[in-house]
Amino acid sequence: MGYAAFDPKSPLAFFQFQRRDLQPHDVHIDILYCGVCHSDLHQARNEWGNSTYPVVPGHEIVGRVVAVGSEVTKFKPGDMAGVGCLVDSCSDCSECQADLEQYCDYAVYTYNSADRYTGKSTYGGYSNNIVVRDDFVLRIPDTLDPAATAPLLCAGITTYSPMRHWQVSPGQKVGVVGLGGLGHMAVKFAHAFGAHTVLFTTSANKVEDGKRLGADEVVISKDPEQMRQHMASFDFIINTVAAPHDLDQYLMLLKRDGTMCLVGVPDHPHPSPSVGNLIFKRRKLGGSLIGGLKETQEMLDFCAEHNITSVIEMINIQNINEAYERMLKSDVKYRFVIDLVSLQNESQTTDQTGAAQSGMHINPVAA
Ligand code: NAP
Ligand code: ZN
Predict the structure, then answer these.
(1) Cβ-count burial 137-158 (b if 16+ within 10 Å, e if not)
(2) pLDDT tens digits, 317-348
(3) Which residues are near ligand 1 (CB < 6 Å)?
């Protein structure tokens, strides 16, 4: 059981469904915590145009293993385990062979994707349990707080991976655009990698938080004078903004051969940046998608070593719709995490009142 969006406009509501039967390579996890990513909101509301309803969002999952298939050797009941945005891929193509499963043409996402075993839609972590192929399950370091670790499974790896790819290192000047879920992890990683870290925010009330999180400087991006002071000075900028905006104002801040990597996926395209801004200083505009399983484990282990977790605000599943509204107002400090114990309370209410109560949906196939 979990919470689902049933169409692009209605609030998320209780939904009862079953996970697939345990396969030899499957790990069955009871979910304790699930982070709330802006991608959940995009897909719940069909903003990318690819949602198949019902959508059970959630791809920042931490929980406890309760059962494993006969061929599983890496996990046993009782282990803490994590699941991010991917639950399967083809394992054969050049991307999978290079540990870049996220770029596999047959990658299966944790929700709103077709399960390779059943052909039915996958359902994510706004739920009490999940069944996942063992190669797609992460080890959660036991020194890290499990709730604050959940957002590392998407917000963490999505910012860690491009910074590793573009080799962010000491001596560099690195910009982070937007202080939300991804942005606050990007600030922490850029700082941990030793770069001079500059946060760009539209929210004047986030300046002190930005500095506490590791930014050496914070720039209010709406202030042209502050922006001008950083002209042509950055090696790398990671842009996490979830809405269309003017990219030129950041491209101009890159020095020769600098790169801006987009990770935000807005519902409408950004206005096209000016070609002149790219060619006159050989600047590059790129993108990056989450990270592969090997790199995600490496990121978790890096976080354990450097004591890095997400700054979270814990919510009950019943408050998810309100959390989405706050996310749209850039009012997230800095990741909502659902405590799935709250779903148990709901099931007790359900047991007492019956399933016909309004706002409750039962999957006709698998109830
Ligand atoms: P979030 O927590 O809502 O943070 C986004 C931040 O962007 C806001 O807090 C705000 O920061 C800034 N912002 C929002 N609207 C803005 C606007 N109109 N103009 C300027 N700045 C604005 O979202 P998130 O969970 O970090 O996700 C960010 C984006 O990344 C989403 O589009 C999500 O789908 C995408 N994503 C991509 C990947 C990937 O693999 N590439 C993975 C996960 C998520 P300030 O208040 O500081 O300005
Ligand atoms: Zn995400």
Answers:
(1) bbebbeebebbbbbbbbbbbbb
(2) 999 999 999 999 999 999 999 999 999 987 66
(3) 37-39, 42, 154-155, 158, 178-183, 201-203, 206, 240-243, 245, 263-266, 288-290, 327, 330, 332
